[in-house]
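ingest -> validate -> predict -> emit
validate: passed (alphabet ok, no gaps, 221 aa)
predict: started
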Amino acid sequence: MVGQPQVIYKEIDGKKCEPIETLVVDVPESVSGKVIELATQRKGELKIMEPKGDQQHLEFEIPSRGLIGLRNNVLTATGGEAVMNHRFKEYQPFKGEMRGRSNGSLISMGNGPGTPFSIDKLQDRGIFFVPPGENLYTGQVIGEHNRENDIVVNIQKGKQLTNMRASGSDSNSKIVPPRLFSLEEGMEYIQKDEYLEITPESIRMRKIWLDEHTRTKMAKS
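emit:
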């Protein structure tokens, strides 16, 4: 199990300081505004903006914690056309609170494989990370909610069959392919109350507290 990466703060001259990095992004000019918006939302300061051939060359100073999850967002916003790299610069005074991931999680209510019928009916709630038939457990993060809060969903429930002719209708569900994560992408994606479970067979996300009542209790404490 691994948790969300955390930066190391230091106290310098009595002030709380955090690591700052130089972020360099080369991106087509037509989508450079999206990169600037994403970086500034994470306390990034644009220092250099200049043309470089048919690309726009951007340099920011940004807190290291602002880089967590930024790569995925930038690649999504630019259609995979951005080239990013960053390096540590220095410690500077703490830049203030920063908003995390804006979408909540879809969490499995029970144990067992998800059914195409249930996933199909819940697709309007968000994006799923698991295909039908994959074995799941209570408290596993199985998708991204399209709103800010987490919700628990039951995707193990099959369609109630009323006659023999309806038995094949479950396979007719139109399921959007699941979103898959690499190890690095998963570590960037998870929230503070989530773990990444790594085994030789799979990489799965889960809540630290699998039981829903325990999660609610811990969130209030």
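The chain has two domains: 10-93, 105-220.
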